[in-house]
């Protein structure tokens, strides 16, 4: 059975996707003041999942240049929205093969990177990833409001596939 935290991550992803739906290619690369573009946000979240659940967890390399384009601390960029959405879809599909294996016991373990355990457990990384989606979802909503978009999704949406269940 899929772990509750994985179900919640998938719900956060679906809400983020709902928040990005209908954004044009032109609006996807617009920056409002110092805020990043929506396309950057999509790529940035894809990069985090790529790092945690693909590269470190599965030792797979896909989209090796993504970090340089949308990583934390890198210069601002405005990659094409469709390119970032395509990368995000491939990365999350690849990540899911690992996420589906998580158990309460595995969530308490640590990845080893460069011969040393990373600072946070797999469970904490999973929560960090989920909360990162919610952070950028709010930012997407703000950018869309500043761009004058109407009829934006209201959050939080349909949770029928993300019910709480005890471990």
Indicate the topology.
Layout: H1 4-20, H2 25-28, H3 38-58, H4 66-70, H5 81-99, H6 104-107, E1 112-113, E2 116-117, H7 122-146
Please tell me about this protein's structure.
- The protein is 57% helix and 2% strand.
- By secondary structure, it is mainly α.
- The chain has a single domain (4-146), classed as dinb family like domain (Four Helix Bundle (Hemerythrin (Met), subunit A)), CATH 1.20.120.450.
- A two-stranded antiparallel sheet has the order 1-2.
- The longest helix has 25 residues, at 122-146.
- The mean pLDDT is 94.
Distance between the termini: 10 Å
Helix-strand pattern: HHHHHHEEH
What count of domains describes the coordinates? 1
Contiguous low-pLDDT stretches (5 residues minimum) are none
Q: Find the CATH topology.
A: Four Helix Bundle (Hemerythrin (Met), subunit A)
User: Biggest β-sheet, characterized?
Assistant: 2 strands, antiparallel
Q: Summarize the amount of helix as a percent range.
A: 55-70%
CATH class: Mainly Alpha
Number of helices: 7
Query: What characteristic shape results from the CA principal axes?
Result: globular
Q: Roughly what fraction of the amino acids lie in strands?
A: under 5%
Oligomer: single chain
The CATH superfamily name is dinb family like domain
State the secondary-structure class. Answer: mainly alpha
CATH architecture: Up-down Bundle
Q: How confident overall, as mean pLDDT?
A: 94
Rg for CA atoms? 16 Å
Quick take:
The chain is mainly α and 167 residues long.
């Amino acid at each position: 059975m899929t772990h509750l935290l994985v179900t919640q991550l998938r719900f956060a992803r679906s809400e983020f996707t709902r928040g990005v739906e209908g954004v044009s290619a032109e609006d996807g690369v617009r920056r409002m003041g110092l805020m990043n573009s929506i396309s950057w946000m999509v790529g940035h979240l894809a990069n985090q999942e790529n790092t945690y659940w693909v590269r470190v967890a599965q030792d797979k390399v896909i989209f090796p240049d993504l970090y340089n384009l949308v990583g934390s601390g890198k210069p601002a960029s405005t990659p094409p929205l469709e390119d970032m959405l395509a990368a995000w879809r491939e990365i999350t599909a690849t990540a899911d093969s690992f996420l589906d294996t998580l158990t309460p016991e595995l969530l308490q373990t640590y990845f080893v990177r460069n011969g040393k355990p990373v600072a946070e457990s797999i469970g904490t990384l999973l929560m960090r990833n989920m909360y990162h989606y919610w952070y950028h979802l709010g930012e997407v909503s703000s950018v869309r409001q500043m761009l004058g978009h109407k009829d934006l999704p209201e959050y939080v949406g349909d949770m029928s596939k993300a019910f709480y269940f005890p471990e």
